[in-house]
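Bumping my old thread because nobody answered last time. Still need a sequence for this structure:
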């Protein structure tokens, strides 16, 4: 259990570094939905969809490649310097193209021309930070990593409050930017935060000796490009719904859907926290004798915690919701939340299962699976949004992530067989989903019965896992 304890410790440390800033940032949903009309929130969402697309293209899988080769390469300095030079050159080149063709690109992507310069600038700055942050993670410096992440979100939150809040807003600062659309204040705050964080990480970057190794570069690119394609497919899976809804249902509905979608952030945060600790851990311990058994145990407990989270959030959704979304106009899409929570849990299991193609250097399979998921997302949304509206988007997300999870498990059994406890994992996933859906959709979020469901699930977990839990707690 010593290895597992180290994994849980690393996951908690890095998880806090990601979860706490994202959770603080999530609190801005209340401010944004109070200040912005549904249409304005839709514009904010569409802005960050394009930013996500640009980020995937600009990093071209280099972060995961860096983890892979830094952990096993003898000359680690070459991996670091080659990665930094590569991303610097590509970012500058890509940035020049984006600015040169700004009219054509902004129109094609449906981005307000006033927002476009901010969008590109934020994306370029965030890309330059990727490898320095990855270096902090892979070399085990969670404190500095966490402080920088917290500072970033602190700046964003403070500026959002000063620029947008009717109560605490600073008129002098608002007048200094003189924007026509208040949603632009959100982007300005992000730009300032990204610039300051880049300035803080630059000194540590300049300490290394810059050497560009072509052999290392080829290895990084070969490994990373399929991950980039998979990343693009993931952006489609995660965001196509919020891109298509304005075309079919209008920006009002898209704003409501996007805001309610954010209520599933707690599951997303759990998954991100897990991945922050898991990815370096999986690579660093891949040569251990009992590595596969460790991976199997981790997935089981990941599913238990994720299933518990699904049940807690769903049971108390209508108690939690007023703290984050107050305006009634946004609540028309609240019914998507349990479905999106389950979809994200399936995605988290998929990421866990996906270690097989990363450890065997067959990242093309991750690309194939993600493309398949994107195809499902595109087809389902195009067919069913006109028929059943925004609920089609939630069902498409669940279907895509569920199928990706099943396909990854099936292929993993062939290429890198891990002894997952399939019966227990399936039971926890299905049992928690049934309880959650009955509580919300059939019993109208009855708190008493929902709490009883929650206690029953916890009791079953304790009963089935008491032996392992005792060992973990004793350690």
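Sorry it took so long. Here it is:
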């Amino acid at each position: 259990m010593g290895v597992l304890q180290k994994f849980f410790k690393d996951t908690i440390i890095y998880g806090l570094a990601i979860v706490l800033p994202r959770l603080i940032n999530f609190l801005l949903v209340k401010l944004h939905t109070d200040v912005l009309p549904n249409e304005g929130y839709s514009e904010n969402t569409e802005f960050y969809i394009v930013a996500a697309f640009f980020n995937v293209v600009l990093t071209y899988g280099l972060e995961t490649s860096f983890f892979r080769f830094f952990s096993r390469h003898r000359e680690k300095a070459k991996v670091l310097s080659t990665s930094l030079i590569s991303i610097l050159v590509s970012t500058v080149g890509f940035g020049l193209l984006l600015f040169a063709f700004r009219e054509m690109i902004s129109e094609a992507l449906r981005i307000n021309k006033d927002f476009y310069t901010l969008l590109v600038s934020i994306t370029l700055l965030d890309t330059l930070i990727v490898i320095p942050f990855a270096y902090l993670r892979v070399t085990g410096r969670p404190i500095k990593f966490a402080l920088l992440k917290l500072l970033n979100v602190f700046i964003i939150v403070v500026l959002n409050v000063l620029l947008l809040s009717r109560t605490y807003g600073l008129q002098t600062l608002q007048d200094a930017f003189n924007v026509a659309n208040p949603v632009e204040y959100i982007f300005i705050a992000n730009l300032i935060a990204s610039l300051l964080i880049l300035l803080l990480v630059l000194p540590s970057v300049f300490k290394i000796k810059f050497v560009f190794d072509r052999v290392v570069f080829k290895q990084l690119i070969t490994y990373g490009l399929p991950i980039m394609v998979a990343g693009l497919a993931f952006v489609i899976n995660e965001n196509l719904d919020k891109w298509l809804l304005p075309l079919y249902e209008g920006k009002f509905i898209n704003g409501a859907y996007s805001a309610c979608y954010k209520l599933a952030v707690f599951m997303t945060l759990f998954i991100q926290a897990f991945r922050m600790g898991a990815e370096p851990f999986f690579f660093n311990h891949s040569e251990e004798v009992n590595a596969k058994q460790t991976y199997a145990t981790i997935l089981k407990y990941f599913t238990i915690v994720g299933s518990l989270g699904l049940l807690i959030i769903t049971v108390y959704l209508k108690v939690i919701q007023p703290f984050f979304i107050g305006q009634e106009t946004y609540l028309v899409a609240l019914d998507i939340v349990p479905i999106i929570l389950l979809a994200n849990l399936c995605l988290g299991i998929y990421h866990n299962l996906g270690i097989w193609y990363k450890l065997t250097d067959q990242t093309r399979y991750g690309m194939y699976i993600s493309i398949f998921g994107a195809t499902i997302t595109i087809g389902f949304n195009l067919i069913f949004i006109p028929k059943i509206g925004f609920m089609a988007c939630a069902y498409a997300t669940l279907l895509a992530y569920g199928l990706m999870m099943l396909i990854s498990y099936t292929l993993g059994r062939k290429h890198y067989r891990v002894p997952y406890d399939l019966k227990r994992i399936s039971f926890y996933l299905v049992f928690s989903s049934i309880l959650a859906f009955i509580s919300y959709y059939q019993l109208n979020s009855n708190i008493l019965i929902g709490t009883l469901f929650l206690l029953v699930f916890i009791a079953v977990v304790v009963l089935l896992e008491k032996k392992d839990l005792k060992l973990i707690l004793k350690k």
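The two ends are 8 Å apart (CA to CA). Let me know if any region looks off to you.
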